[in-house]
Amino acid sequence: MKKFLSTLVLGLAACYAMAQHQVTGRIYDAGSNEPLPGANVLVEGKGKGTVSDRSGSFTLADLEEGILQLRITYVGFETQRVTVNVPSSTPLQILLSQGTLSAEEFIVSATRASSTTPTTFKVISKEELNKNNLGQDIPFLLNFTPSVVSHSDAGAGVGYTGLRIRGSDQTRINVTVNGIPLNDSESHGVFWVNMPDFASSVENIQIQRGVGTSTNGAATFGASMNIQTDTKREEAYAETDHSVGSFNTRRHTIRAGTGVLDGKWAVDARLSQISSDGYIDRAFSDLRSYFVSGGYYGDNHVFKVNIFSGAEQTYQAWNGVPEHLLESNRTFNSYTYENETDNYQQDHYQFIYAGNIGSNWKANAALHYTYGRGYYEQFRPNDRLERNYGIAPIQIGDALIGRTDIIRRRWLDNDFFGGVFSLNYVSDDGRTDLLFGGGANRYDGDHFGEIIWMGVAGNTAIRDRYYDNVAVKDNRNLYLKATHEVRENLYLFADLQYRSIDYRFEGTNNDLRNIAGNQSFGFFNPKAGLSYESSAGKTWYASYAVANREPVRRDFTDSPLREIPRPENLQNIEAGIRVNKGNYQYNVNGYYMGYRDQLVLTGQLNDVGAYIRENVASSYRAGLELDGAYRVNDQWTFGGNITFSRNKIAEFIAYDDIYDENWDLTGQEATAHINTDIAFSPNVVASAVIDYSPVKNFGLSLMNKYVGDQYLDNTQNDNRKLNAFWTTDVRLSYSVFPGFVKQMDFNVIVYNAFNRLYEPNGYTFSYFVPSEQAGGRELLTENFYYPMAGTNVMAGVSIKF
């Protein structure tokens, strides 16, 4: 009996094994013959599926014998169905054709460049973002894109992070999410810490360098980033990502979606938590976020609701490390109070419509609302009561106390809401494309400060506001874009935009000054260009664009009333070639960005000692950018980019403070500087990435970044400089398809593998002090830096169910 049962079991197992088969294949772009990584392959009616790897290859295992229907989908391409007779020994070769613009893709098309738009841009796909997404913020996921320099206060890419593109910081980079403005209305900045793990809900990002095309929100004054959130998936899914690494960094993410229900409806959701101790002492981060999207997807109309939120608590590390401590204590943090933290939450609501109206028209409209609130807490030792808080000296017995220890909170409580729209017409012959759009948005923000504790209590109660001011800013814009094919493959482009801003503020600023005032601006921003598409897969382009930009909040609140700052003007020329053919692609472009009345920090003080920005008459950025990639074979791919640039201010006047022997400020000295480098604008920025896949589903990448010297101010003084640096990251990835889950991806990234000591960001200030040895006085310069971590590691696993 035992022998019989053993034979039976072995026989059944053999029959089962013989009955299970696999189908292999490869998916290509029918137009360029490029492989398509990340394409979805589904066995209809069987609940089985897979995703193509980086070479476009896929394997469907454990298939029963018979005729099966496969459905292959890829964003931006037509869905294809393939009938397979299993067993099949011949690998499938599947060609997908690029699809026409769907209603969902049109949500972002109004503010994006297309293949015929004569401007400089790059699109970063979801797959590219996911390769490096182990918990770092978006600036670090974009670190290897052209002309980008990223930085982090805490030194490890988690917490407060930022980036510069062509030397322009985030206050000069327009950012939209689904065409909806993201920049803070007053500072024009973008605070990625308020959107932790947002990259996990991003479909793709288009970066336009230079002025680019018209968009909503803040002026595009150096670059723009247009983010599209996740589009619908055809099939239900569940995924979970977990990462751990150096500095006790952890990331946990759960994503799930219904797929398309009843052919029309879909819901997607994500929940994330990220924590890190940071590289800098005590610079911890505790970050949480969620993203929920639901929509109706008809044949011609899409209605979509996105709700996402981020909440952060970070220990402050924004003071930087003094230069004299860089060698002995690179992780130094001057703050020691246990709750010296930043606490903020931001909730976003988007209500979006996109649709086809007849055969020639498309429309998009969206309403949005953002609610942000939070504070940062500070311990202030021996602080001045009357000067800083308006509190009279405290009488205790015979003692008159004018200073005491204080804990304060500085608050923001703001609402941002409005709407954007676009209407697109394409002629019957496809040669004329017109786009009319715009938006109207309002910001209503309350700024106030509270004293929550005093070493010696005065005539004040907890939560009393020692300053309180309100700002209201209305931003409206209209634009008209036109592309016309004047003859075969030759396109003319025109883009006309008008922006109007009304900005009013009232109340007491944090320096106890009354800042009541209002300003209005109207800007006309024209753009024009042409492009030519040759039959060899090349696109030549050239364009001229104008952008105007209003001063930011601090320019008004910190400047003396007699010196109202002037708006800035930028004139931008772009010219280049884009090539995408076979196994290689490259882009070469030159640019010139000429500024009039650019606002820069000079070191000049207002009447209460705050540093102000001043208009400089003439400055420019000019450069050459090259980026490309070459796929040698299934195993090797080489890619990279390099930017050579000159970034100059024609004439710059710097102001240095003068102190007496009692450390009282007695005045300032002005020094003229001619033809100096613009601060934080390296002349060379480069990246090089080598991808190697020795066996199927395994990848090894070597990622290099070089950034040239940067100056901390506009004096081009070698004593106020960030030194050039070269770093190398190593990425390992491996995918398995174990059967009990759909797919498991393992990733390890070794950051700064050669342990380079470098600082991509910092600040400086100089002042005169009395000195007998230096002939009466001496100029002292203090530099502060934000060091990045040495060699550190993150490892993660992604599981798809």
Can you give a write-up of this model?
The chain is mainly β and 801 residues long. The protein has 3 domains: 17-96, Immunoglobulin-like, CATH 2.60.40; 106-229, Ferric Hydroxamate Uptake Protein, Chain A, domain 1, CATH 2.170.130; 237-800, Beta Barrel (Maltoporin, Chain A), CATH 2.40.170. The protein has 6 helices and 44 strands. The strands form 7 sheets. It has a 22-stranded antiparallel beta barrel. 41% of the residues are buried.
Summarize the structure.
This protein is mainly beta.
**What is the class of the largest domain in the CATH system?**
Mainly Beta
Low-confidence stretches: 12-19
Number of helix segments?
Answer: 6
**What is the CATH topology assignment of the largest domain?**
Maltoporin, Chain A
What is the second-level CATH architecture of the largest domain? Beta Barrel
Mean pLDDT, to the nearest integer, reads: 90
Name of the CATH homologous superfamily of the largest domain = TonB-dependent receptor, beta-barrel domain
Which percent range describes the beta-strand content? Answer: over 45%
| Intertermini distance | 41 Å
Silhouette: globular
Taking the sheet with the most strands, its summary is: 22 strands, antiparallel, barrel
Query: What portion of residues is helical?
Result: under 10%
| Count of strand segments | 44
